[in-house]
Amino acid sequence: TGSWGKYAERFGGQLVLVTGAASGIGRATAFAFAEAGARVVAVDREGEGAARTAELARLIGAPEAWPETVDVSDEAAMEKLAEKVAGEYGIVDVLVNNAGIGLSGSFLDTTADDWRRVLDVNLWGVIHGCRVFGGQMAERGQGGHIVNTASAAAFQPSKALPAYATSKAAVLMLSECLRAELAGRGIGVSAICPGIVNTNITATARFAGVSEQEENRLRKKSSKLYGMRNYPPEKVAGAILHAVLNDQAVVPVTPEARGARLLS
Ligand code: NAI
């Protein structure tokens, strides 16, 4: 456990919905809000993982926590989820669109289906989340906050991850456009841009389309400079809470992400 209890005055009793909450950054974020006393909806397409997150969130301090098994790329399912949440739990105060999948491979090695798969989850999933829950927030008229998990890849061209990086650049721009639109309604929008974080996504990442020698060189360079894979998801969760507390627009999280943002 961390030290998020001190933000109970701000988040206590608020309704926080996190997607991709079955593991990694999403689970850590659900736990951080739980510690701050928020009521948590843990959404993931992996039902068991979501259930476990909700169960642990209650133990950690969430007065209530519910798992929801939903694929964020499924528009109808997201609309149904929003109706259910509004009807049974209330209007979401903080929405964290975090579900995402990795995809590595050079452009020439990436098929149209690969592009569709990654854009469906990483971009459309965020669009659906912002539409259905952001729409409810705006209608209620009492403000709120939306956090979208983009990536340092959004401002760091890479021949190893063109589809993933493109999906995240789109999420970054969507977040900034939405921030401008919703500011007048008291709804903040933040884009969180982590570099390399120690989760399932990076454990299984492959630098496909890059020679083994080049992959080894990249991994070595990265781990020497930044402790590749050592950056804990809990610290990204902390950055997400701070983004809401301080209404930050774009937040590069890991050291290499901050470096990439400065260069872009
Ligand atoms: P993770 O793989 O541990 O967690 C992702 C979660 O999203 C999983 O529980 C997965 O089941 C869920 N998910 C995937 N597709 C889904 C769908 N269609 N509907 C509902 N749930 C779905 O990985 P991690 O790292 O925690 O990823 C979270 C977010 O952070 C992603 O958007 C990722 O792109 C982003 N990110 C991760 C970085 C890293 O180095 N780990 C760096 C920058 C961004």
Automatic annotation (TrEMBL):
Sequence ranges assigned to domain Ketoreductase in this UniProt record: 14-195
Domain of life: Bacteria
Family in the record: Belongs to the short-chain dehydrogenases/reductases (SDR) family.
Protein's recorded name: SDR family oxidoreductase
Organism of origin: Streptomyces marianii
Shown residues within the full chain: 321 to 584 of 601
